[in-house]
Amino acid sequence: MNLYGHDGQWLMVDCGVSFNEPLTPGELSTATTKAEIVCADPRFITEQKERLAGIVITHAHEDHVGALPFLWRRFKCPVYTTAFTAEVLRRKLAQVGLTDQVPIIEVAENESKVIGGFTVKWLGLTHSVPEPFGMTIATPAGKIFHTGDWKIDRTPILGKGFSSSAFKALAKDNILAMVCDSTNALKEGFTPSESECYQGLLAAIKAEKNRVVVGCFSSNVARLVALGRIAQETGRYLALIGRSLINMVGAARVTGHWPDDLPIIDAAHLGYLPREEVLAVVTGSQGEPRATLNRLAMNNCFDLTLEADDLVIFSAMRIPGNELAIDRLVAQFKGRKIRTLQAHDTDLMIHVSGHPCREELKQLYSWVQPQVAIPVHGEPKHLDANADVAQLSHVPQQLVGRNGDLYQLAPSLTVRRRAVPVGRIALLR
Questions:
Q1: Is 345 helix (H, G, I), strand (E, B) or coil?
Q2: Phi/psi at 85 (5° precision)
Q3: In b/e form, how buried is each residue of 235-262, taking b as 16+ CB within 10 angstroms?
Q4: In what order do the strands lie in the sheet with 104-106?
Q5: Phi, psi of 307 (to 5 degrees)
């Protein structure tokens, strides 16, 4: 949840959630201290909501859009986003009784909107979800480039390959500050393409003679399309188990991101298929207790039963803090002689990140040439590493802060530490 302020008005960029985390950051997670769904405490802005001109959502990942259905009644302002994210959001709003109540303005690549005192222009990127966008936010005091989540993927499974032209053009726009994704700032080189992950998963699955289950994030539609293609190439049938997966593919169909020639069978039919024809994609790659992978491990999934020597592939990163839950899940499968495959078990590329490594950060800084770098989206060590890359890329100034810090960019440059009270609140489904 990011807030940009100018001339007595605020613009919110993203409104997301995280899962199974303590309400007090840094506290050890226990059953009594953590909540199933957590979001940023919005008190600062809700106490002055008449100054909130609008909310912009960069893309459809839960950590960027998941809290909005729960919090919108506290804001009651228009929401701006692209078609795919809007479709995902409408489905979420319907679940909390807000159908047709939230004004959603759909925007397209290179389109500009005046939102209060801010002029926002959408710039297409590549990431691990359809229609990811960064944006420039212009005011009379200066222009900001907010990257959102991104990577440089020249050969994505869905959408256009990453194009540098729009970002090279920003160098002529006198960008005051670039607010940039720091997730992989500790990693050298470039993040591999989704096409490379497709090849890795194909190699892992085509050698199998028994059932294959793949756990991945439901929002990674490109990964789901890749698995659909792999099912066709290996003589298997693709099925989805998990409400979020089915919803996401539904949103992809409506917005033209799901190929017409890619069939999905009803999960209820899996039990009638020979083992070598089953490819199921399921939720729960982070060990979530109520998700499908956990139910498969406990042998109480209604649609599918696994047997010894079947294979479960984790096509997702291990989000920090979820390691114990994932290890327990793997141990349950192994106790039933069901094989598992994680990224660290194999040289095959069965998962790729959606975020930029250091060389990609260097390229974007060199193209945009901002006056100031503001690293976001990461732990302190990631923010510091991003600032280091910016300095090496000849960005004149770097500002590194923490939640609640207020970055003053004009007329003078400074950071007011702990200027805004922040925290976390629990949300109910």
A1: helix
A2: -60, -40
A3: ebbbbbbbebbebbbebbeebebbeeeb
A4: 2-6, 9-13, 52-56, 79-81, 104-106
A5: -125, 170
d(CA 426, CA 429): 10
| Tokens, residue 134 | 């960064």
In this prediction, residues 180-198 reach a mean pLDDT of 97
Task: With residue 210 as reference, give the H or E element that holds it.
Answer: none
For residue 150, what is the DSSP state? -
The helix/strand/coil state of 79 is strand
Q: What is the mean pLDDT of residues 100-126?
A: 97
**Beta strand segments in 162-241, E:** 177-181, 212-215, 237-241
For residue 8, pLDDT over 90 is answered with: yes
Q: How far is CA 410 from CA 117, 386, 407, 413, 419, in A?
A: 15, 22, 9, 6, 16
The answer to whether residue 42 scores a pLDDT higher than 80 is: yes
Reported confidence tier of residue 28, pLDDT bands at 50, 70, 90: low
Q: Are 405 and 417 in contact (CB under 8 A)?
A: yes
Compute the 3-state secondary structure of the chain and give helix, strand, coil in percent, each to the nearest 5.
30, 25, 45
**If we measure between CA atoms, which residue out of 148, 15, 14, 19 comes closest to residue 429?**
19
Torsion angle defined by CA atoms of residues 87, 242, 29 and 182, in that order, rounded to the nearest 10 degrees: -50
Q: Which of 15, 4, 2 is nearest to 408 (CA)?
A: 4
Q: Report residue 26's pLDDT band, with 50, 70 and 90 as the boundaries.
A: low
| Confidence category of residue 172, pLDDT binned at 50, 70, 90 | very high
Among 108, 113, 63, 116, smallest CA distance to 86 is for 108
For residues 262 and 240, what is the distance between their CA atoms, to the nearest angstrom? 13
Q: Name the average pLDDT for the chain.
A: 95
Q: Go through the domains of the chain in sequence order and give each one's CATH number.
A: 2-190+353-427 (3.60.15.10), 194-345 (3.40.50.10710)
Distance between CA atoms of residues 317 and 351, nearest Å: 7
User: In this predicted structure, what is the pLDDT of residue 221?
Assistant: 95
Q: Let me know: does 143 contact 175? Beta carbons within 8 Å.
A: yes
Residue 428: pLDDT above 80? no
pLDDT confidence of residue 32: 53
- pLDDT bin (cut points 50, 70, 90) of residue 322 is confident
Cβ neighbors of 207 (< 8 A, separation 6 or more) are: none
Cβ neighbors of 169 (< 8 A, separation 6 or more) are none
